[in-house]
Design brief:
The chain has ten helices and no strands. The protein has 232 residues and is mostly helical. It starts with 29 loop residues before the first helix and ends in a 17-residue tail after the last helix.
Length: 232
């Protein structure tokens, strides 16, 4: 029989801590917000707006465990890395991303176009040329270049790929290729986990995969997907 729902309790607003007192809460501020405002018109393709924000949050988490990586390089690169998909024929995007695709030119084009867009946005914001060049170098190769140029590049690459294992990433990939949740997780893990470049990235990947796998467990298939008390 279905579990008995617990009665809800209305909490007083005073019991909810202010945002600036909550650990690990991520928000765009300052220069990042300015970059985001300029990048957003290029991110209305392939759910890239939500993807880029998720990747930004993942990059911030990775930066806490990768002190050798520079936030001033990593975070702008993450926000800008997929702007180049705006310049690609939409009909070619999913075929180029599908398993077994033989269209590397389309993937490569979004990197080169993204580097051009990154240069334009960062120049408009007055970024130093050397910083802009480092960010462009990361954007121009974030998918097709398997190795990392440095710690900054490794964090961007891992944050980008880890998005696939988030609930939003799994839903999005599944919708692209009409897969169920279990099929999506198996596909995503097969093309993601072994390509993560940092140990913190692999730790986050294992955690996300474990949660997704348990959500797909047959024991979670009861009414409304409710877990039993022993599973919570």
């Amino acid at each position: 029989m279905p579990p008995t729902p617990l009665p809800a309790i209305a909490l007083a607003p005073s019991l909810i801590p202010p945002a600036d007192e909550v650990p690990a809460l991520v928000r765009l501020t300052g220069a990042e917000q300015e970059i985001w405002d300029r990048a957003l018109p290029y991110l209305d393709v392939r759910d890239n707006d939500a993807h880029s924000l998720h990747a930004h949050g993942l990059a911030r988490a990775l930066l806490t465990a990768m002190p050798q990586a520079r936030a001033g390089i990593v975070l702008p690169a993450v926000l800008l890395h997929d702007t180049g998909w705006k310049c690609v024929d939409p009909a070619r995007i999913l075929p180029a991303l599908a398993p077994g695709s033989h269209d590397p030119e389309t993937v490569r084009r979004h990197e080169t176009e993204g580097a051009v867009i990154a240069h334009r946005i960062l120049s408009d914001l007055g970024y130093p040329q050397d910083v802009t060049a480092r960010i462009m170098e990361i954007v121009d190769g974030h998918d097709t270049r398997r190795h990392a140029l440095n710690a900054d590049d490794a964090v961007v690459k891992d944050a980008d790929k880890l998005w696939r294992l988030t609930p939003h990433g799994l839903r999005t990939v599944g919708s692209w290729f009409t897969l169920d949740a279990e099929q999506t997780l198996r596909l995503v893990l097969s093309v993601t986990y072994d390509r993560l470049l940092t140990e913190p990235g692999r730790v986050i990947g294992r955690a996300l995969a474990a949660c997704a796998g348990l959500d797909n467990s047959p024991r979670r298939s009861g009414p409304r997907g409710q877990a039993s008390v022993g599973e919570q």
